[in-house]
Specification:
The chain is mainly alpha-helical and about 140 residues long. The protein contains seven helices and two strands; from the N terminus they run ββααααααα. The relative contact order is 0.14.
Length: about 140
């Protein structure tokens, strides 16, 4: 038996403070976030440079809600996030990106990347028809 936390489908396990925690954004937590802040896809766009960047409050609230989805109470989740302090903001931003990404695309990491086979291109001369070979094969 292992005691290592394992992320459920759509969840992430990250170390915050001195313990590992399960972060899982379910529909209920996403709705709670949207009630307090903005749409989840607007936030997604902000994380990847296509919209307004997330504020530290949005990042902290998203992570606290993800901890709630992972099994913590509201009070426990708030305490875990607030204990990190300002020095954890960059790390929180990275975790929030991962949590939101895996919530929206839960099977992204499970899929094996498809590798395209390289096709050998023929030279143009090989693609043109030979008038001599066509003349011999035409019906009389």
């Amino acid at each position: 038996m292992t005691i290592t936390a394992k992320a459920p489908r759509g969840g992430v396990v990250e170390i915050v403070g001195s313990a590992s925690h399960v972060f899982l954004l379910r529909c209920a937590e996403i709705e709670r976030f949207e009630d307090q802040h903005r749409g989840i896809f607007d936030l997604w766009d902000g994380f990847f440079g296509r919209g307004q960047k997330p504020t530290s409050k949005e990042v902290k609230d998203l992570l606290a809600l993800a901890l709630v989805g992972g099994g913590k109470t509201d009070v426990q989740a708030d305490k875990i996030i607030e204990n990190g302090g300002a020095e954890m903001l960059l790390r929180y931003y990275q975790i929030a990106q991962a949590v939101l990404g895996i919530a929206l695309m839960p099977d992204a990491l499970d899929q094996t990347p498809t590798v395209k086979k390289k096709r050998v291109r023929k030279a143009t001369a090989d693609l043109t028809s030979d008038p001599l070979s066509e003349a011999g094969s035409s019906p009389a």
